[in-house]
Amino acid sequence: MHYVKAKGILSAQNGMNLYRGCSHGCIYCDSRSRCYHMEHDFEDIEVKENAIELLEEALRRKRKKCMIGTGAMTDPYIPLETELGHTRKALSLIEKYGFGVAIQTKSSRILRDMDLLKKINAQTKSVVQMTLTTADEELCRKLEPGVSTTGERFDVLKQMRDAGIPTVVWLSPILPFINDTAENISGLLDMCIEAKVYGVICFAMGLTLREGNREYFYAQLDRLFPGLKEKYMRRYGYRYEVGSPHGRQLMDLFHQKCGENGIVHDNGQIFAYMHTFEDRKAGEQLCLWE
Fold it and tell me: How far, in Å, CA of 30 to CA of 140, rounded?
């Protein structure tokens, strides 16, 4: 861990990252890619020491209420959050100033902040996003060794359902020759159906590999699945988009099962929902984009 003083905290689209880097160890993490210009070891978490002060100033100055997003690049519930509490402090400010939140994580640590998520959801909207990759708990521990297992994340989704907090699942990445089976996709969607998620985001059955991320991923394939890296190299080489050979059939299954069970599966519609601020007291809807 190391500290930096940030110049700003909210992006033009009202997203924020309180931390940079991650200790979850997911073998496929795109945030390792060199294009993001992380100038420190990925596991050496960068903490924006003035993030909370910057956030309060930004929220105080905003003329219109909007949704605040977090978790796109770094999980806001990495183990360090237990010690520092930046995410909880940020949620407290979001609640205090009457903004909404769309928060993405793979950790059951989010349950610590259920009280704040409920308060935000009562006055506007909290959307909790969880990534699911495999219904196999043993495989999950290989692919995502430092985060809550799929079963634990499923429990979070159900607790959010019971609390009336809307949820969205990211069905990604689907790794060729590892978790790209109809049984896996169907099993994950069964969890989404039971948890009554609002929507499931899935761009394609596969993953993306860029410089920095690709090298780490292939090294992990060598360690966990001997011989599979060579199969990837023969089929995909250095492609950015690495699609499952069963992609079309699996996407058909995905759309069919979501459609039959009332789960939104249009990515654009889901993003619009997460980006739309709702003033529950006034009965108004305001867009995130200012």
Answer: 17
Calpha distance 45→23 (Å, rounded): 8
Residue of 100, 66, 122, 123 whose CA lies nearest to 287: 66
Going by C-alpha positions, the residue among 250, 242, 178, 235 that lies closest to residue 213 is 242
Q: How many CB atoms lie within 10 A of CB 12?
A: 7
Residue with tokens 């069964």: 190
What does the alpha-carbon distance between residue 62 and residue 53 come to, in Å, rounded to a whole number? 15
Tell me, what amino acid is at 279? D
Helices marked H in the chain — which ranges? Answer: 51-61, 80-84, 86-96, 114-123, 137-143, 150-163, 182-195, 213-224, 228-236, 247-260, 267-275
User: What share of the chain in percent tops pLDDT 90?
Assistant: 93
pLDDT of residue 284: 55
What gap in Å lies between CA 36 and CA 3, rounded to an integer?
18
Contacts 24+ apart (CB under 8 A), 284-287: 286/64, 286/65, 286/66, 287/66
pLDDT per residue over 177-225, tens digit each? 999 999 999 999 999 999 999 999 999 999 999 999 999 999 999 999 9
**Distance separating alpha carbons of residues 183 and 179, to the nearest angstrom:** 9
